[in-house]
Amino acid sequence: MRLKIALLFAVLCFTPCFAQADGSYTDIQTDINIILQSYQGYIKGSEIKNDLTYLLLSNGEKLVYDDKLPKSFEEKLENPDLKDTLSLVYPLKNPIDKMNLNDDPGRFRSLALLKAVYGKNKKDVRTNLIRVNFCGKKLFFNKQNGAAEALKNIGAELLALTKIQPQLKKYITPLGGTFKWRNIAGTSRLSPHSFGIAIDLNPKRSAYWRGHSQTTIAEFSRLNYPPEIVAIFEKNGFIWGGKWYHFDTMHFEFRPEIIAKAR
User: At 132, which CATH number?
Assistant: First the structure.
């Protein structure tokens, strides 16, 4: 697998950067290398066909990096290509305050990639779930791609943190849950909880954008959520829903590619 990644990386070194409408540039080489490194064992190669670059998945499917279709924000939510999924850079700075309009790094999700890695349906995902000790609770989480191991490490670090700062326990428990096969509220898109790669901490200490007016969404401050908790999750490959313009502050999601792009 390392040889395949090295060969693919070498080919992509000759792929040019493409200018975007806003004047920024997308580095195909960097993006695809990030995806390869974040999902090792699930991608077996690539091909260029009709001027489009595809990643070849181990399950026999292939995913286009850039379908070159103009898309609105909502269209990227509904049908993102791999370029879209990495197009918004997640801010690692802790703490942060306000986010710009529709700046939701990580909300563009390639369901085809998630299904190939974590399970194509509810039954398949269930077979990949294992129990994880998280802050004294046994939770189901997906064992694929190191997700469950990452959550286990987070649980151990949070236990150590709350021994030093016991006032933070109220943000962690009671938990909102992990695996549940369902759509995202108000949409027909599968939630990352469906794949067993997301965890919600204490709902009573959280805020969710759907309960706010457009004005309060724009003015929402993230500074009242403990940055120590966020940093531990990010260290282990999770993104925080609080760093979205459309915020969901109890939500943490295993997305190693988003964290790798941020770094």
Answer: 3.30.1380
Strands (DSSP E) found in the chain: 18-19, 25-26, 43-49, 52-57, 62-64, 129-134, 137-142, 198-200, 238-240, 251-254
For the chain, the domain total comes to 2
User: Per the domain annotation, does 83 fall within a domain?
Assistant: no
**pTM summary value:** 0.90
Which spans in 133-213 are helix H? 147-164, 169-172
Identify residue 164 by its one-letter amino acid code: I
**Does the residue 98 lie in any domain?**
no
Closest listed residue to residue 3, CA positions, set 39, 28, 40, 49:
40
Residues 6+ apart with CB under 8 A from 223: 95, 97
- What per-residue confidence (pLDDT) applies to 26? 58
Torsion of CA 58, 59, 63, 65, to 10 degrees: -20
Structural domain containing residue 25 = 2-68
